[in-house]
Write a structure and sequence with these properties.
Layout: H1 4-14, H2 17-28, H3 30-48, E1 55-64, E2 67-77, E3 80-87, E4 91-94, E5 101-106, E6 109-114, H4 116-131, E7 138-144, E8 148-150, E9 158-160, H5 163-170, H6 178-191, H7 203-217, E10 227-232, E11 241-245, E12 254-256
Parallel strand pairs: 3-7, 4-8, 7-9
Antiparallel strand pairs: 1-2, 2-3, 4-5, 5-6, 6-10, 10-11, 11-12
Length: about 260
């Protein structure tokens, strides 16, 4: 029996479901969620901060002695240089500013991740080494995206969404002259790592440097987001520890913990 006419009729009727399915799959992916989160943060800076006062540099990778450091946002202004770390982490977050590791609770899972204040401190030190800035001239800003809450009060520079814009605008003391501001912007652009445009012989060393940084940061093999150490708290695998993507359950990336 020839089913071709039936199949052709079925496809001509339901063909639109294919792109719909693809769109839904993309919308629910960890990559899309992470990209949209960073896009929103950048969009807020573009539209809420006066570009004649605040200059936004996004996704800046600086070379360091031990590899490189990736900074989500650097905002240069006469009120100082704002180093922004974006975290797309959901659930209940438990941690104090002085603690090295914080804990995330999502449903029955709990995981540890590096205190973003400490993480951003390393970013700031790398930037200060490049720009010769004092501690007073640099502001650390942490912005959380998504549905997360803390069990204890946090410093004012740990913000959610629009809160980071309010924090930036709260700094009104002139710390940098307009001329120095332009010099700093040029120095950051000159010191950042970009896509290789020189000789092909320089390509491998650049890629190797970036791959080393990804390995050091323990990024998810599926979507490239940060991996967090999780512990199963229920069931037959109770107490089992493993590395899982910070976007779980949207992303199922998982890596065993080395003994």
């Amino acid at each position: 029996m020839d089913l071709s006419p039936v199949l052709n009729q079925l496809f001509s009727t339901l063909w639109y479901l294919v792109p719909c399915f693809l769109c839904i799959t993309l919308y629910q992916s960890a990559w899309f969620k992470g990209t949209m989160g960073e896009f929103i943060v950048n969009l807020l800076a573009r539209f809420q901060l006066d570009p004649t006062v605040y200059h936004l540099l996004k996704n800046v990778t600086l070379a360091t002695e031990d590899g490189s450091r990736h900074i989500d946002q650097i905002i240069v202004s006469v009120y100082g240089v704002f180093v922004v770390e974006t975290k797309n982490i959901h659930g209940l977050i438990i941690g104090q500013p002085q603690q090295k590791m914080w804990t995330q609770h999502v449903s029955k899972y709990k995981s540890e991740f590096q205190n973003p204040l400490h993480q951003n401190h390393d970013h700031i030190k790398s930037l200060q080494a490049l720009l010769y800035l004092t501690d007073e001239q640099v502001h650390s800003v942490i912005v959380f995206i998504g549905k997360s809450e803390f069990n204890t009060p946090q410093p004012e520079n740990i913000t959610h969404s629009m809160g980071y814009i309010r924090y930036i605008k709260s700094k009104t003391e002139l710390l940098i002259t307009p001329i120095e501001r332009d010099q700093l912007i040029a120095a950051i652009k000159g010191g950042r790592l970009t896509s290789p445009v020189k000789s092909n012989s320089e390509q491998p060393s650049h890629e190797k440097q970036i791959n080393v940084e990804k390995e050091r940061l323990n990024l998810c093999p599926e979507c490239g987001k940060e991996m967090l150490m999780r512990e199963t708290t229920k069931g037959e695998n109770k107490g089992h520890v493993f590395w899982a993507c910070s976007e779980f359950p949207r992303c199922k990336g998982m890596v065993p913990v080395n003994d």
